[in-house]
Amino acid sequence: MTTIAVEAAKKVLTKLRNAGYQAYFVGGCVRDMLMNRPLEDIDIATNASPTIVSTIFSDVISIGVSFGIIVVKQDGRLFEVATFRSDGEYKDGRHPDQIIFSSIREDALRRDFTVNGMYYDPFEDKVFDFVEGARDIEKRVIRAIGHPRLRFSEDKLRILRAVRFSSTLGFTIDPATERAIIKEAPTLVKAVSPERIWQELKKMLKRDPYVALSLLIKLKILMFIFPELKDIPYSLLRTTTEFARKLNPTHFPEILFLLPLFQGVTEEAATVAFGRLRVSNKELKFIESWYQVLPHFQNQSSNRVFWAHFLASSTAPLFLELFSALQKDPCRQQHFISRVQELEARLEQFILRIKTSSPVVSAPDLIAKGIAPGRLLGDLLKEAETLSIENECLDKEKILLLLQEKGFWK
């Protein structure tokens, strides 16, 4: 986050303080500041009630009033301003049934993890740490505040947040916190919306997919999100995740880090599994493509028609990188790369024709032979392309002759 954004956030603090209230930066921004990481969002905590916050600022969004949160617009930027609070019982596993406005210390004790439970005064350059968050940053550990099982039973989303923070920050998870996650993992799917689960998965897979996948498997979380994987041996899942070490997640679609785990699952089951998470149509298309190309890669297919169309597709670079990473030793990986390069060179002209929609035999060529526009014409165009690639032939008349010899027309 830019210096301009920080200055805007400080203006919010100043307005609250000038009105007689406490106000501090809180949560992830304090953690990131102590770690010298770029600030993504700045959240603010105060002892002013939401009603008072709404009167102090002229431009607000009352989006989370029931949880003591008001969104304040300052200098064109949005900041969440939350009132210090204690939470009542969490009956739905996500949200407190009641909140009680309280002190800064009580507000810290109801938060999720120690590294997220600190407050910062930017004017005094002072950190308020009631939960030993700074110590855990130093130790590089994710630790639940208070009783771990209680923290996760209150809000099941914290199960995924623990994994995300561990993978994105490069921290280990405290053993007691790990044990609580394993005990609460079976309740995750019923309490958290599918869209939010997928959102959290994507966030963690975008930073360090290997660590994220390893933790999701180790902590038994993945099998509850995807019961389709429950019969796949743990050892196979763990070894499969090794491929993620070799890929750069910044340009790789998150769903492609999960699909290799589904190699023993049918396409229909995988589509249902990801459909439950409300993935996008584009992501569903990746599933379809994965299952189309998988047997050709597994069986080292020599099908020229498949390879020409595959190598002409926009997703070819992604899948080639993925399948290359899935090769378990450097020799096999190099053999795979060499084989694809050989096929690409051999089929270069056919790949180019597919990319540019320039078939050897076109519709006018067939119409000139007396084929009327319609379904037969379309079928013949596809067959002509197949014959051209299979025979590595760019001679139009030869392809037309082959069509005739196959009895498509007299």
Automatic annotation (TrEMBL):
Residues 23-143 form the Poly A polymerase head domain. Transmembrane segments: none annotated. The keyword Nucleotidyltransferase applies. GO terms for molecular function: metal ion binding; nucleotide binding; nucleotidyltransferase activity; tRNA binding. Gene3D superfamilies: Beta Polymerase, domain 2, cca-adding enzyme, domain 2. SUPFAM superfamilies: Nucleotidyltransferase, Poly A polymerase C-terminal region-like. Residues 170-230 form the tRNA nucleotidyltransferase/poly(A) polymerase RNA and SrmB- binding domain. Its cofactor is Mg(2+). Keywords: Magnesium, Metal-binding, Nucleotide-binding, Nucleotidyltransferase, RNA-binding, Transferase, tRNA processing. Belongs to the tRNA nucleotidyltransferase/poly(A) polymerase family. This is CCA-adding enzyme,tRNA CCA-pyrophosphorylase,poly(A) polymerase,Poly A polymerase head domain. The gene is cca.
